[in-house]
């Protein structure tokens, strides 16, 4: 068990270290200029020198992403419950839900700015549109997966529609909820970057920092912002994984672990 955990950590870390070493060696051997492709050492140096500024922008983007993820999850749950309780709504609104995911953010962002003005509201709406769909779709599937005999039993004892939803269907859909949350958490930071990039008048956020440094041809700073984006995306993803383990304590352990534990 210990060796398996060690391999699970060592292999990805080793792969990243080898990749960075090869990247550094290629940049040094071919004398690639910083403004073309910065070496990992150049990126690390820029992150160290610009740490205070980066931290301010990271905080802004992290806060925006967190609020967008929470609101998107709440909207997704509400929409899924509504469509589950009222089946005609599911038939009528399903095309609109799919349509909402086919409008490019880069086209919708300027329209929201025209309609709602500058500020946080257009950005949050963009994030809600990105986050609510995978959550709504996942939990809508989960709400229909409750055990049929338990449904019949609750109906026999006179449980109301709300009681069946609260005591049976929603708890049964929690694993599906977290599956959708993992997808939403993966995309929320990159969507926040797009929202900050499109948000005229914004002066904080990694999206603003990225756009500013890109315009100044400061490639090391551009790669520094990419590192921050990747780290934040991974942080959101693993926070959702941790929350799932804390909430769904009854979830069985993966099968391979049982096989290894058996004599």
TrEMBL record:
Cross-referenced InterPro entries: MetI-like (IPR000515), MetI-like_sf (IPR035906)
Example GO BP: transmembrane transport
GO cellular component, one term: plasma membrane
Pfam families, sorted: BPD_transp_1
Transmembrane segments: 62-84, 96-118, 124-143, 174-200, 220-243
Membrane topology label: Multi-pass membrane protein
Compartment(s) where it occurs, according to its Swiss-Prot or TrEMBL record: Cell membrane
ABC transmembrane type-1 domain location: 58-240
Family: Belongs to the binding-protein-dependent transport system permease family.
Protein name per its UniProtKB record: ABC-type nitrate/sulfonate/bicarbonate transport system permease component
């Amino acid at each position: 068990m210990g060796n398996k955990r060690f391999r699970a950590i060592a292999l990805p870390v080793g792969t990243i270290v080898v990749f960075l070493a090869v990247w550094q060696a290629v940049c040094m051997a071919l004398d690639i200029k910083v403004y073309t492709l910065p070496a990992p050492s150049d990126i690390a140096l820029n992150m160290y020198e610009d740490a205070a500024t980066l931290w301010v922008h990271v905080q802004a983007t992290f806060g925006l992403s967190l609020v967008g993820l929470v609101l998107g999850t709440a909207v997704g749950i509400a929409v899924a419950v509504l469509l589950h309780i009222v089946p005609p709504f599911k038939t009528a609104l399903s095309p609109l839900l799919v349509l909402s995911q086919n409008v490019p953010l880069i086209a919708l962002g300027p329209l929201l700015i025209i309609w709602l003005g500058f500020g946080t509201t257009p950005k949050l709406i963009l994030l809600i549109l990105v986050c609510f769909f995978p959550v709504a779709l996942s939990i809508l599937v989960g709400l229909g997966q409750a055990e049929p005999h338990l449904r019949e039993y609750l109906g026999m004892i006179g449980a109301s529609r709300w009681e069946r939803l609260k005591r049976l269907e929603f708890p049964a859909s929690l694993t599906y909820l977290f599956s959708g949350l993992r997808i939403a958490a993966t995309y929320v930071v990159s969507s926040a970057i797009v929202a900050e990039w499109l948000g005229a008048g914004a002066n904080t956020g990694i999206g603003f920092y990225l756009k500013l440094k890109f315009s100044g041809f400061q490639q090391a700073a551009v790669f520094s912002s990419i590192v921050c984006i990747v780290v934040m995306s991974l942080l959101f993803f693993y926070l959702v994984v941790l929350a799932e383990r804390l909430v769904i304590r009854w979830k069985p352990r993966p099968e391979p672990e049982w096989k290894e534990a058996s004599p």
